[in-house]
Amino acid sequence: LWFHFKYTILELSTAVKPYAFEHLFAAYDFDRVVYLDPDVRLYASLDAVTEALDSASIVLTPHLTCPSEDGKRPGELDILRSGAFNLGFIALARSSDAQSFLVWWQQKLYDHCVVDMPRGLFVDQKWIDLVPGMFAGVHVLRDPGYNVAYWNLAHRAISRGERGYEAAGARLAFFHFSGLDVEREDGLSIYQNRLEMRDLPEATHQLLRAYREELLSAEYLTCRRWPYVFGKFRNGVPIPDAGRPIHHEAPELAATIEDPFSEDGYAAFLRVWNEAIQAGDAAHQGVSRLAYRIYRTRTDLQASMPDLFGGNYVRFLKWMLVRGRVEHDLGDVFLSTISEALRVHQEHRAGAQEGADAHRDSEGALEVGGGGPRIALTRLAAKIHGSRSELQRSFPDPYGRDGARYLVWLLTYGKAEHGLSEEHLAPMRALWQSVVRAQPDAGTRLKYRLLLGGMSTAVRMRQTAVRVRSGLTAFAKPAPFSVRREGRETGPLDDSGVNLVGYFHAKTGIGQTVRGAREALAATGIPMSLRCADDTGIDCLHESPVGPMSREFPYRTNLIYVNADQAILVRRRLGDAFYRNRRNVGFWTWELDEFPEEWQSAFAPYQEIWTSSTFCQKAICRLATVPVHCVPYAVAPVVPEGMGRSHFGLPEEKFLFLFAFDVLSVPERKNPLAAVRAFEKAFGGDARFQLVLKVNHADRAPAFIAELKRACAPGAVRILDASLSREEMYGLIGCSDCIVSLHRSEGFGLLMAEGMYLGKPAIATKYSGNLDFMTADNSLLVDYKLIPVGLGCAPYDPVSVWADADVDQAAAYMKQVAESADLRSRLSIAGAEFVKANLSPEAVGRTIRMRLEELRNGRG
């Protein structure tokens, strides 16, 4: 039982090989036994194998017979890691050499048939690298027709002749379909990026297509869902694969527990893996043994979080609870230690922050430890330091040895440069006083006080010089704050409206966001001054005018609809004076459940952040240094009169499904290929239905668009890649019968909201920002599983997760919508009522007005 318990389905399937060989030789008296992986298909007799076994005891096939180092995967280094020989094939002849080899191989695979690349192990394959040197009678079969697969296909072109399929001119004996996605006709293997399907000869396409058809006709999709018989404890709790080798961590368990699948086995397993690792200091001892095993077996985690028990401790805890949970299929019972550690950390941090934000005396300002006094900076002080690289160079340790000097800077130059009020300065001044009082001698205390006095004098002299150069006397009464923009002077700052900044002319989601905000402000009568964040660039395609851009910005509140990744760039364009002495509110969206740490400095100039959905709010809050509030997009599409299907060249008689996406929004996230697959599953060649794909900026991703076109059946799927005005986009939505979006993740889901506003039934993934307005009562929500983002989807982290929608369920929903007028009517009415009540410019305007009033009253 332990042999079955300690291995995953892949590991167990390979670990049994030497035992199976031994059984076949003993029970059936075979002279020769050939092993082939289940994803291998024979195309000719194995004459070369039988000939080799006439004189050899062991026959192996190498992964590579030619150099393969072109920067693509798998390269020669990848092959070294996984093994020189591919164990999808091995053949043995009855002999003393083969018997000795099997005994040795069994010993190795009994405990060490694992996928553990850092330890140099990849199931059974790496052990076989030793075989040609350790055993006689080994034959390496280099015939190009044997074990053809993605790793050697670049050197073994497939063709078709009178003898059938050939590889590099030799008769193809067997092809290894490792990593083939049977449901995708546009891929060779998920484990390689060297070969594109479009570059492969037609014979290879025929071979792959025929194999897929054979598998599907043999009910492969049903078999694929069969559970691993050793995948759960007897109480039904899934066994996490990462924890199966528990006998290495606690060898006494195998001696004391006969059945690891039993209730006793479950209890012992839980106890061992949830035990906290005793490493680091007392504040960093919440990493469980299971979590630590996952960490040490993954080089990607070690590279991205090298200081596990120090600076990366909290990040790793969060990773375990979000991405680690999904990637390693961990139930809550295996994360209890991690959850508790994060809770303790957050409570400790919250308590420390409350103390830092209060007016504290010396007892609360300093934490004394082995490294000397530590200063608990206020959140604002920490934020200013994090936003300015020159401060980080001048004060590299603001919480320790550089803390006193940094506080002096804050109380002098920082006060002037950031317009800090007395409310901001009071806790900083209290910190400063406590730091001075904590100094060991009177001389040091005097030195710090003189430093503060000298810098205060220097700042006053500089301000006086500026006023003199401006034609003002040093003794004049300070004028109300005003802003000079483009040569014109505004009056005192006005609290009644907002300066609204964004990409007003851009044909993108963020452009429509700020245009919607303008409509919401106008609907509730809030005065505004408009400023385009950037009037140049590929995205500024000049939509219909939204009103004149202003040269004056008289309002105290800046509302800046620019995402975090562009916030610093836009701040440079506008200038620091635009932000100084203002209430600055940023509007950001982010489509994954973890906000990028590298953007944390973007919070610096803002008093609070608004975002489009509760999904985004939760993601941003994890790193936010300011309050984050949900303010949804304003939605009010109007279909132009007379803009029917003929305007777009669409058939009048067909039932039309519509999906629209922007290539610049990462097409993999929008996932149009899933919509195509669902449509074709639902309707096949039924000419009564059509899927319309509206693509924006199609010219920016020609390879993806070409792939999309190859996936679309002619006539059944129509791709519109022409540039449309916003009014035309509304007209296209009005022409459709149903909106569909099988997205991986959305910050909001504008297409679905606009379609529902116009009374269109909507089918969408049951994940992310669209769930704020899509419910089981007003739309059809498609189930999903979480999968890693993967490579090539920048700016998204490859190890983050997003949704993979259930295409079969989506296809069923498409058929239901098309066939049931009652269902369409119910969804149409419910969807339109909800969106108009909650997302209209008037509704969103009321939310904005409430937030602005809270800000003015200091209750952010």
For the termini, the CA-CA separation is 59 Å
Radius of gyration: 33 Å
Based on DSSP secondary structure assignment, what is the total number of beta strands?
A: 29
Low-confidence stretches: 353-372, 465-490, 535-545
Give a written overview of the molecule.
By secondary structure, the chain is α/β, with parallel strands linked by helices. Helices cover 42% and strands 14% of the residues. The protein is built from 34 helices and 29 strands. The chain has a 6-stranded parallel sheet, sandwiched between helices. Strand 8 and strand 9 form a beta hairpin. The longest helix is centred in the middle third of the chain and has 28 residues, at 442-469. The two termini are 59 Å apart.
Layout of SSEs?
Blueprint: H1 2-5, H2 9-15, H3 17-28, E1 32-36, E2 40-42, H4 47-53, E3 58-60, H5 76-82, E4 89-93, H6 96-112, E5 115-116, E6 121-122, H7 125-128, H8 131-134, E7 138-140, E8 158-161, E9 164-167, E10 170-171, E11 174-176, H9 202-217, H10 220-224, H11 246-249, H12 252-256, H13 263-274, H14 289-296, H15 299-304, H16 313-327, H17 336-357, H18 362-365, E12 366-369, E13 372-375, H19 379-387, H20 389-394, H21 403-418, H22 422-437, H23 442-469, E14 484-485, E15 488-489, E16 494-502, H24 509-523, E17 528-532, E18 555-561, H25 564-574, E19 583-587, E20 608-611, H26 614-621, E21 628-630, E22 655-662, H27 667-670, H28 672-683, E23 689-696, H29 702-711, E24 717-720, H30 726-735, E25 738-741, H31 750-757, E26 762-765, E27 780-782, E28 784-788, E29 801-805, H32 807-819, H33 821-839, H34 841-856
Helix pairs in contact: 3-6, 16-17, 21-22, 21-23, 24-34, 28-32, 31-33, 33-34
